[in-house]
Structures are given as C-alpha cells and as structure tokens.
Fold:
Amino acid sequence: LSGFTLASQITLTTRSYQSADGFCFECSGDEQFELTASKRVEIGTTVLLRLKPEVSYLLDDHRLIQAIQKYAGFLPVPIYVNGQDHPLNRQPPPWIQDDPIAAANAFVTRETQQEPLAIIPLRESRVALNHDTLTVPLRGFLWVPQKMHLGETTSADLRVYIRRMLICKGETNLLPKNAFVSGVIECPMLQPTASREALVHDDAYEMVAQAIDCQLQEALRSIARHQPDKWKEIVSLHGNSLLAWAEDDWEFQILIEDLLLLNSSQGPQTLPDYLAASDGVIYFCTRQLGSLQERVMSESHGLPVLDASARAVKAFLERYAGRHPNTRLVQLDGDLAHLLQPASDPRFAEMLQYFSQLGQKVQLATFRPASIPALLVCTARAQLARETREALSHGDVPQSVTHSLQRFVVEAEQQGEALDGVLMLNTDCPLLQNMVQRDLNNRQYNATLQIVYQQAKFFSGRLLDTAQATAAFDFVNHALLEMLT
Amino acid sequence: MTDDDIDFMRNWLSDAHASAKASGDTRREKLGELFEKCVDAITSRNGLRQLQISDQGYQLARELAEPWYELLFIHGKITARRELHQLVGAIDEAVAATVLLQKQPGYRLMACTYNDLAAVQQAVDPLGSSAQTKPLLEYIGDLVAPHERCAGCLRSRWISYFLDSGQLEDAKQKVLESLDELDESDGPSTRDRAALDLFHTLAAIAFRQGNIDDMAKWSAAANERLSNAEPTTLAEANLWQALVHVFRGDCDEARRLEQRAAACAVRSKDQLSDRYYDAHVAYHEGVGNLGQAIALRQSQLKSLQGCGMTGRECLCLIEICRLKLRLGQQVAREAAHARGLAAQLPNSQAYFDRLVECGISPNV
Structure:
C-alpha cells in the first residue's frame, strides 16, 4: 500500500524456482488489480513503480541514493543503482556488530559530527502489564549528546527501524518526558501505519516506550554511581534537562543536586560551594534585572546571588531546601524585606509619626549599608498594582477591560500590598541617629526628613513617573531652602 | 485584528532583526533569535522550552526597553504556562502586558494580550471571574475579524466561559462553529489535534447533558482522527469510549478501554486535562467504584496544588467532598481546605454556592 504514496501504478513480475511459469500483478492503487501469467525467464521478483509526476524528482540519482541510504541503509539485501558495482547499503546496524558500543559511537559521530558523551545500549526487556509481564523485543541504543551551544538544550531525536527499514525519525514520544538523549531503535513489535511514514500508537507502542524509559533510567543511575566523572560532565552539560527531570523524580534530584552548576553573581557554582560561602543561606533572584536599590543592598551584604530566572531553577532550589532543613532560601527580588531586620526604638516615634501624617506607610528596620537612611520598599506585585491603578485613572484602558484590571488592584490591596510602598527607616544610619539625639528645630527636622523621604523615592527607581519625579525635586529644593534660610 | 495585522507584525520582527544584525547590535539581534527559538518551541510543542526562552526574551526585552518584544514574549510565557498548568504569577504577567499595551498604540496583536488575560482569569478562577471575562470577550470580539485565525482563540475562550458558567447549549454551538472553521491551511496533524479537542469537548458536553447517543457520536468521531494522537489525547479518547460502553452495559469492553486509557495517561508528557479527570471519574462512578473516583480526584488535586489555579483546586476539593459524602465519609478536612481556597478569591460566593449544592455549609 505504501508504494502508492509514490506510484500511480505498480507492476510486479515473479517466478518461483519450482515453476516454469511466472505471474504478473498490476495495480493502479484502486480496488481493481490484474493478475496474469508472465513469460518471465529468470527466477526472482521485479517490482516496477511508475512514479507520479509530482514525485519524479526522486529519479535524480543523488536524491535516490540519499533516500536508499537513509531508509534502507541497514537492509541485508544489497541495493544497486543504475548498474553500479557496489551496493549502496549492506552496512550492518551497530547493535549486531562485534563491538556494538564502538559501532554505535562511530555511527553517532558520523551522523551528528560529534562524539557522544555516552552510549546506552538497549536490549530485550520485560515490562509490567497489569498482573503479568511481557517481553519487548527491543534492540538499538540511546546516546547522550554533547551540547551544541552553551545554554541551549539539544533537541532529542529517536529513529525507529522495523525489520531494518527506517520508518521514522523524531519519534520522541517513545522517549521519556524531558529526555535529553537521542537514539536509534529496532523493534518488530511496533506497527507502521499503512503509508509506513509513522507508527501506530497502540498498546505495543506504550510498552516499547516503557521499556526505553526503564532502561534509560537504569543506565543513567548506573553512570551516576560507577562513572562519577562522566556523570559530572553529563550534569554540567544537560543540567537544564535534568532539572526538569528532577521535578518528577526525587532520585534524580539527589543525583544532580550537588553537581549542577548554577549561575551566581560570582560565576557558575555548585550548591555545596555556594553554601560554604553563604553560611547555609541560598540568596536567589528570579529576575535577571534587579533595581539599583536591590543590587546595592545585596552587594553590601557580600552575598553571591543565584540566578533563578528559569522557573525550573527556582523549583530545584525549593526542593533542595526542603530536603536540607538547615538551608534557608531567600528570594531577593521584589521583596527586599528579606535583607531588612525589623527594629524597634522609642526614640524614633516622632519620626514615624511625621511620615504617617504624610500618608506614607513606615517602619523601623536595620539594614546595610548604614549610609542609606531610608528605603522605599515595594513588592513587585504592589508595584504592578500601582501601575495598573495609574493606567486606569488616566482613562487609557478600554471600558470592557477595566473590570479585569480593577479586580486585580482590589485583590492586591485586599492581600495587604502597600501600593505606594513602605518606607523603611534605617535605625543604624548615623544621620537618623544624630537626628534623634539632637534637639533640632522643627523647620530643620522636617526639611531633613523630607530630603530623606524624597531620596528614598528616587533610589527606589520604580515608583516615580516624570511628574512625580519633578515634584520630588521640588520638595527637596524647598527643604534645602528651608534649611538655608 | 486580521491576518494583515499578523503579517504586519511578522514584517516588523523581520525588519527589526535585520536592522539589529546590520548595525552590529548583538543584544537586539539576540532578541530576534530568541523569538525564532520561541516559535520553534511552539511548533515542536515543547512547553517547558517555550517558557524558558520566552522568559529569557522577556528579561532581555525589558533590559533593552523593547516593549513590543516584551508583549510578544509575555504572550509566549502565558501560552506556555497554560500548556504546562504553571499559572503562579500568570495573572500578574497578563495584567502587566495589558497595562503596557495601553502605551503601545501601534502594536497590532492586542487581541492576543486581551485573550491571555481572559484565559488566565478563567484558569485561575473559573467560577468567580465571569463578570470580568464576559465584557472582555465581547471587546475582543470587536477587535478580531470573523473567520480569521484569531477568531479561533476567541471561540476557545467563549467555550470555556460557557462551560464554566453551565451554559452547555451555547458552548456546544461555539464548538460546532469551531469545527466548521477548522483552518484548512494548517497541516493535517494540527487540524486533527484541534478537531480531537473539539470532539472531546462535545462528548463532555453531551455527558453533562446526559445525552449518551451524542456522547457516543462525538467520541466515535474523535476515534476517526486518532492516528497520530499524543498519549494524553489517546487516554481521553479511550475514556469517552469506555464511558459509552459503561452506559450501554458492556462492562468488559469498558474496562479494557479504561485500562488502556490509564496506560496512555501514565505515558503522557503533557498535563492531564480537567476533562480527562472528569471522564475518568465519571467512568468509576458509572461502574460503582467510588473509592477509585476519589483517588483520581486526589491525584488531580495533587497536580493542581502549587500551580496557581486556586479556583480549580477549590472545585476539585468540592468534588472530593461530593464523592466522599456519597460513600458516607467525613469531609471536614477537605471542606475546610476548600473554604480556605475560596476565601482567597475575590468572588468566594460562587464557590460557597457549590459547597452548598453538595450539602456542605460554607461557614466553619
């Protein structure tokens, strides 16, 4: 049947060695066919395909040779083109050669122009089937590829042969979820579709997938235990894929967690190295960008910060902290409160009252560097809610969309987000300490606090639009004038 | 929004990439490359990679102050998150994109941004967001041209809206419209995938309406398109067939199909859909195996936890309560959990009403 995807007519003549007469079968792909006696002299079979005009390009020698080598390269029957002396195929598949690992290695190197990191041979295996087991007649191999470029995931591939004919490439549904390996398999249990371009997804397909999954996991675990250097190399090159794999499998989490190289502000580091320097605390950022305020704060603590901008990294760190109770996780971005220690000092009561009267939420804290008198801290969500509120108040948003945005703002406020930020006064700051110790007159006192406040707004970097920035300068100018006069 | 708008954006992307390359602006060139990789990830249906690349692209776009790229990458992130059922923070991203969109009058893919907002609202809070979602969908309807590509996304949103609000006949009409409008320019596998989803939705609607003949009809129609289906879809197809056999009294065949569905589900690389769980639970309820039905809902609950789909998590708990009550079991713990989740949502009442329907007080 698959012949008719290319041919408009197929003629088959055949003669048995036991018979003087042959037969000729002719069909044009419909329900009718013709079977006649043939005067064929030689013993054997000839199949003649009359190609459809749209696929006549296949008659080009180069393309034909490529197709034969691709699909029939492993067939034991020799294939000749245009009377050439040497067959185009006759290359035995790696898994039946004397040294299958070396043959597979050579095959992968030839096909991908890269030597694989590891070859995982596949064998016949038994899979669970409800209360029974079934033997899957599987042969072939998987390979762990080298990475093409730093930071990229290599696409997995799986080539499937049935009785040594290539049926399809890219059959990655047979590979486990998040697999980073590629492979070549042969399995007579798999059923090709009528056109032989794809595989039927039946029970056998599921069992073959299960057999591959089991053997791959077993092989990777074996590499991790018995070939630590190779495992280290695999983890460092395929960390992203293994991270995703570890999400579903605790054992993989354990196998990779001390080897994985994570990006930190001080270069790539493994978690054990990082934790030795950070005193058991993992500081991470889910945004590659932090504001100047966040960066100054982090660096003043001398903290190497891990880049957890990829979701899988954050999930990995959370699982790590879950497994190691002495490890603490601190997310720096969008929530600077982690770097601030709440403080309490009755001498600052008047100062707190001053800011409360301005309608600004305010708290006392200690933080480094001590030269910063105050910070305006706003969570990422509060900041977004504030921007949303502003967009709504400007009347830019279409009426039908406002309901959704209003709901978001209300929800953020209900959840206790301070849309205008919380002013954190640093009780360690020499300026503020000086102010509470000295007996300043009201004008000087208020003017200084106003400058501290506006500085904090500028420094927060995200809370001001152009009009508000101008207003902040006006406040500072006014305060300075107050102090000069 | 029309196909012309999509072409306009394609040309803009191509020009922006070419101009970055010509001027040696490697960081902006990288933005273009990331976008191409994102499209590749979408084509190969690799949600995790799509999410990672979109996130990387979004960060870079912010850094370079490239708002159109920001909007495109947020769209990439949200579609990937929906595929992966990872919606923590998705509502913030959808709102951020909507706010940014208001400052970008020349940007042509507005419908995608609004569609994302509606989709995330529906996924996070299916019962409580209808007052916001309906006007939003009507507005998107004004933006997109009928019979063009974007109209398909809008129809999907309306189908979810009608299903969540129990308007089953309206949902059915939209699904039938979508079947009529399947895009002939798409490849056969894409068309089959879309058709399968629609047939399974029709089977689910027929089941909810108690129309077993229709359920059989639509699940049979789905079976015609299964040749290249992925395990998740195969699992669902087998379940609808199994359910039809349950209702027709052929329990042996139903059991065989259900076992096959369960095997496909184990192999599935994608998240199992709510519809899969509904069908599977219905199967076990149909054969009187309520313990298994509860176990399935518990497994669904586990898959929903920590994914940011508070409303769906709450509904799953209410379903567990319903099943446990049928078995005469205690539901105090699940009911308290459901109440707690409902209280986190702006419109808790819709969920409390569901609790009352199950015979559980909304108050502690």
